[in-house]
Amino acid sequence: MAVRHFADSSGAVRAHDGGQMFKRDRSPRVLCATDLLQRSDRAVSRADAIARALGAQLLLLHVVDATGSAHASRHRDARARFALDAHARKLARSGNGAQVSVRTGRPHQTIADVAIKWDADLIVLGPYRRRFGDSFRGTTAERVIRIADRPVLVVNRDSADPYEHVLLTADRSRMSIGIAHVTKELGLLEGARASVVHALQHTRGAIPYFAGLTESEVGRYQQSLRELASHEIDTLLTSAGLDSARVSVFSQENSPFKAIEQVASRIGSDLVVVGTSRFPVFKRVFVGSVSNEVLRGIAHDVLVISPVAARRAHRKAWIASRRGTLIEGASAGLGHTSSARSARDDVSRDNVTCVNG
Question: I need a labelling partner for 308 at 20 to 30 A (CA). Which of 18, 52, 121, 348 fits?
Answer without folding.
Answer: 52
